[in-house]
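Example record for the data management plan.
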Amino acid sequence: MIEASTFKGQTIAVFGLGRSGISSALSLQAGGAKVLAWDDHAGTRDRAAALGVKLTDLTGYDWTQIDELVLSPGVPHELPQAHWSAEAAKKAVVPIICDIEIFAREVAARAPERRPKIIAITGTNGKSTTTSLIGHILKECGRDAQIGGNIGRGVLDLDPMHRGAFYVLELSSYQLERTYSLKANAAVFLNLTPDHLDRHGDMKSYEKAKLRVFDNQVASDAAIIGVDSPEGKSICTRLISANNRRVLPISGRRSLGRGVCVIKSKLYNVMDKTCEKVVDLSRAIGLDGEHNWQNASAAFAVVRSLGLDANDIGNALLNFPGLEHRLENIGSIGSAKFVNDSKATNADACAQALKTYDNIYWIAGGQAKEGGIENLSPHFKNITRAYLIGEAAEDFHETLKAEKIPSKISGELRMAILCATRDALASKSVNPVILLSPACASFDQFKNFEIRGDAFRGHAVEIIEIYERERASANMQQGAA
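Corresponding structural encoding:
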């Protein structure tokens, strides 16, 4: 745990006692703050109390006695409607922050020579893979890499700071909009597509929240920006014009005069004086697809900007095992492969999967986001048949019908997997892929995308094991004959 000693003696309210709220409360308590922690749900409060969080009912508290409010990232302070705790804080002129701001102040409070390196990653899609990949590279190169934020462990749950540590943080727009003091030695902006607009109001506000990742950087810091979209190109141009930090463009599909790029699976380092081919990503075990080539470019740029050897980074890229729920290879029955892409909760994320494979038996659906799947039509040619689940099934069925893509409303995930497996095997086609890439949130049928992905993995493993047992039995019978 990182103790929040910079808040010693202050009265800090903590609302929302999920992962980040509990770690914030415990960190602040350990650092000597008076903590007033609360949640609207009794069960959540009970779990937090069992872990040592001191509870105080904030509904009747005098907010003029509170110094700051640590508000859970998932709780809105403005749109679509401000939570009552945020309204109370604003009325009493109490600043609203999050756990990342607490962490940032703890870093800033240390003498410069005792600070760890901070790597911050944001973007609509690819954050988790890039964050995990950077952490993997650093560990493979013998560094102490602490990985957290919006992935895995809460930032204040990470190990205590020391000079040689690297903190690799995935940051959502919800976290960044309440973070003011973070200074990243390397900050990554991957991409920007419509998402969370109910929270931010419009794309301009959403972009503004994301761009906070570059706040407080100085000339010695690196800003790594994906330029495979018009938005990224514009942001890159603006930061280069500001001329107050090292700007490194990255691309997964086009040649660049400087930065890092991948062309036909070959990663090139153009950060230094010459253009250097580093590695062939077609040999990487966990980086299928062009979108992962951009993630690999970003990871290389980050770690190289911090002084690590290019060849060591390239070797680490090749043995990255991949990320759970993001093009995760579960296993195969014969030539038919099961791929878990449950983290594709919107159409843009799903597009990356549909571009990666041919002959797809596609499982999609759930709680639809704005825009549906119409913008996926350029990739429908890779779909052999679709199996639709959840609330979006009917609408997706109509979209696919109009595009003459065979589809079936399966309703539940297990039924979809069984039908997709049956059809893929019966087709006797080359390398069919049974792909869960929902293009939807999970909340209609599952608590989160992880549980949805775990369910897919469980069903797929069960089917593979049944197939293997039946094949072994058939071989034994054949041998006995």
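Summary line stored alongside the record: The mean pLDDT is 95.
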